[in-house]
Design a protein that fits this description.
The chain is α/β, with parallel strands linked by helices. It folds into two domains: 18-72 and 251-414, 3-Layer(aba) Sandwich (Hexokinase, domain 1), CATH 3.40.367.20; 81-227, Nucleotidyltransferase, domain 5 (2-Layer Sandwich). It has helices at residues 18-38, 46-65, 141-156, 205-217, 229-233, 264-272, 282-285, 287-303, 316-323, 329-333, 338-368, 386-390, 394-406, 421-432, and strands at 75-76, 93-98, 102-110, 116-118, 128-132, 163-168, 172-176, 182-187, 224-227, 236-238, 242-246, 249-250, 378-380, 383-384, 412-414. Strands 2, 3, 4, 5, 6, 7, 8 and 9 form an eight-stranded mixed sheet that branches. It has a five-stranded mixed sheet with strand order 1-12-11-10-14. A two-stranded parallel sheet has the order 13-15. The longest helix has 31 residues, at 338-368. It is globular, with a radius of gyration of 23 Å.
Length: 435
């Protein structure tokens, strides 16, 4: 959270009180009971996980039938997974990644190492750029693409790619291009992540970007592939949002809603959301809703007198540090005495374990649902995103509960966290178009 101002919070009067020292352990025990039994923030049981796995399989099967009965979209990306060994070497691919807030552009190639990598800058010649979009609401698609090209210009103006890969991190329908090699996407008119772009569905995403590259920089009509972020990463995303890819299918896993009876706090998160009744799995897993969970839980804990009202703050920096479970000197100074801090740490630990359990069960179940695609005994399934990367123990828990299901089928899943996995994966897809 670089550049964000430090939150200043007045110390509670009881910080060094003897009364607090005496009552602290009792208050902590009461808070634990309240968090688990009243709010419902606690790990799933083994039986609950088995039931969720069975229902998830059913939703995958229904989603593949496209009969309108499934909470999983199971969108065919039209882009099968490719072995890296088959991809051509020493050939540049331009990757443009359009996320919810960040825009990235990079030149990738498979070099002598045999791995697809982002090329390093060559002096003042940029091979990678990453910046935040300055706004969420645009007047038109043209205004949006102008903003994108303002960011990616340092890379695209000097690049000489043989293929173009675009990561479009929003819902859309993929189709094979009639003119030119590859796959394009017609975006849904209504976007996620609070982005509003009137007319974005009028022209396919790849066509719009390649046309600008040709008109502004003299690019040729090169092969292009447009894909969502999970297809690019060749696995999962657990960050502000949440989603998994299985084979060539973008499952839109955050929409999974067959979770059984929801504990009170997850019902409350859903009630307060802008889309009640939808994205129920995402509301138990993603970083956006983990932050909302902390906010609501702290409100209720304060109402019960179990934590001081002085620690009820929702600055993104402080929430991030709590999710990182970082007991640093600055955090201690912000009026969190030993018992308040212990309660909050217990809260985020229970929430993150539950989140990782659900993500792991869904990942493992999805993998074993496609035995023709995931044929090997040891499956490498990359996952990227801030939640997966930064919460201590989260990656290990996802892998453990993924294997909770996969081991029953003789599979062993490894879920590495890879920086810029989306860009590297999209680079692979671009090379695949040149085979």
């Amino acid at each position: 959270m670089t550049g964000m101002s430090r939150v200043q919070i007045e110390r509670p009067q009881y910080h060094s009180s003897n009364i607090d020292i005496i009552n602290g352990p009792k208050r902590f025990a009461e808070a634990v009971r309240f968090i688990r039994d009243e709010l419902g923030i606690k790990p799933f049981t083994r039986d609950e996980l088995y039931c969720i796995s069975g229902r998830f399989i059913g939703e995958i099967e229904a989603g593949l039938r496209h009969d309108g009965t499934s909470s999983l979209a199971m969108i065919d990306t039209k882009l099968p997974l490719l072995a890296e060994t088959k991809l051509p070497r020493n050939t540049d691919v331009l990757v443009v990644e359009i996320g919810g807030s960040k825009i990235r552009a990079a030149v990738t190639r498979k070099g002598n190492s045999g791995k697809v990598e982002i090329k390093p800058d060559e002096g003042e010649v940029k091979k990678f750029v990453e910046k935040e979009l300055k706004q969420k609401v645009f007047k038109s698609a043209d205004e949006f693409y102008d903003a994108v090209f303002e960011i990616i210009d340092p890379v695209v103006r000097t690049a000489k790619p043989k293929a173009l890969s675009i990561v479009w991190s929003f819902p859309g329908e993929a189709f094979e291009r009639e003119k030119g090699k590859g796959v394009d996407v017609i975006s849904d008119a209504k976007l996620t992540k609070e982005l509003i772009i009137p007319g974005i569905n009028q022209v396919p995403v790849g066509k719009a970007i390649l046309t600008r590259l040709k008109e502004k920089y003299g690019y040729e009509d090169i092969p292009l592939a447009v894909m969502n972020d999970t297809r690019a990463a060749e696995g999962g995303i657990i960050a502000t949002g949440f989603n998994f890819l299985f084979g060539r299918y973008n499952s839109e896993s955050g929409g999974f809603d067959k979770l059984g009876d929801l504990p009170w706090i997850y019902q409350e998160i859903d009630r307060r959301s802008t889309n009640p009744g939808k994205q129920l799995a995402e509301k138990q897993i993603s970083g956006k809703y983990l932050g909302e969970l902390i906010k609501i839980a702290c409100e209720k804990l304060a109402e019960k007198g179990l934590i001081s009202k002085q620690v009820i703050y929702y600055d993104a920096e402080v929430i991030s540090r709590l999710l990182n479970i970082t007991i640093d000197s600055e955090l201690k100074k912000e009026s969190l005495n030993a018992y308040n801090l212990s309660i909050l740490m217990y809260l985020v630990n229970q929430a993150s374990i539950r989140s990782a359990q659900l993500a792991g069960i869904m990942a493992g179940t999805g993998i074993v649902a496609f035995p023709d695609i995931y044929r090997k005994k040891k499956i490498r399934y990359p996952i990227e995103g801030s939640v997966y990367k930064y919460i201590p123990g989260y990656q290990e828990n996802v892998q453990y509960y993924g294997n909770f299901i996969a081991n029953l089928y003789g599979k062993d899943i490894v879920c590495p966290q890879i920086d810029h996995a989306g860009i590297i994966g999209a680079g692979k897809v671009g090379l695949g178009l040149l085979i």
